[in-house]
Amino acid sequence: MGLFFYYRRIHVKRRERVPLKKSVLFVSNHNNALIDALLIATQSGRFSYFLTRASVFKKPLVNALLRSLNMIPVYRVRDGWNTVTNNTAVFENCSKCLSHGEAVALFPEGNHHINRTVRPLSKGFTRIVFETLSTFPSTDLKLIPIGLNYEQADAFADSVSLYFGSEISAKDYLETDQTSEARRLKNDVWQAITQLTTHIPADTYEESLNKLQAVDADFLNPEAVNACLNSDFQTCSSKKPKQPKMLKAFFKFFMIVLLIGPYVIWKFLAEPKIKEVEFVATFRFGLVISLVPLWLLMVTLILALSMGFQFALIYFTLSLLISLLAVKL
């Protein structure tokens, strides 16, 4: 429900590719911090456990929140050599979950980044795959690549599309030695993800991004954008025309007026403290689903006590309607 009010549009493509009763390892690009995990959790059709970098679990409140969302800390070398050994238990737990036909999701790039490119993948997910097949050889493990595509990841209200790729059977990677097969699996997963999200090569990133923006490329359609890139910008399609900006600005202005309390807290207290742009949407979403309902209830209660129930109901209904129009138009 929260994502519905936060995003203008959420497009899900080829969700039918997700096995509903098999062991599944989701592997996705990672642009938008916690939002990425929430979208996969709510749109994949599977109850999933998520591997998340351990550094974000440091604060007690965040730690409690993330664990309540089935997120498991995974440790990297940059978190300290002494912590990496904790991954043994983490990977064993993942293998057990997968052996029971459950779903695990991770972001094999290692951390988030807002750029429209898929970076080299870490080897952690291959370790989970081979450990699962070694310990539980009867497990029919499938990897499902996912492409997350944001129109503008740090904007509000943004639109997003999720593209589910064809399943990759883990047992197809048991032909030769594990090192070679792990390398092949990493490459195949990387190739799959680059087909499901916009992938701009690093060496021409700024130039290519500027050209895509100049032709008004539809970043919600990675297949069209990648085709544009591969054709050297000869076959590029533009986004569909949007609603008049004045109308959206009108509703957005009144939404701010009606929700002035949460807006002030976000704009002047919370947002300036965010150091990584990838966390902007996550913290804004957290505010939307926490402070906005509290504000609406508080103001509605005050109006009901001071001006009557009917006036309070008008405010509450109008706030929801205008906010919905400001987001969805």
UniProtKB/TrEMBL annotation:
GO biological process: phospholipid biosynthetic process
Gene Ontology MF annotations: glycerol-3-phosphate O-acyltransferase activity; glycerone-phosphate O-acyltransferase activity
Pfam families in alphabetical order: Acyltransferase (PF01553)
Xref: InterPro entries: GPAT/DAPAT, Plipid/glycerol_acylTrfase
Transmembrane segments: 249-269, 281-304, 311-327
Domain Phospholipid/glycerol acyltransferase stretches: 24-151
Record's keyword terms, sorted: Acyltransferase, Membrane, Transferase, Transmembrane, Transmembrane helix
Keyword Acetylation: no
The keyword Transmembrane belongs to this UniProt entry's keyword annotation: yes
Record's protein name: Glycerol acyltransferase
Organism: Bizionia algoritergicola
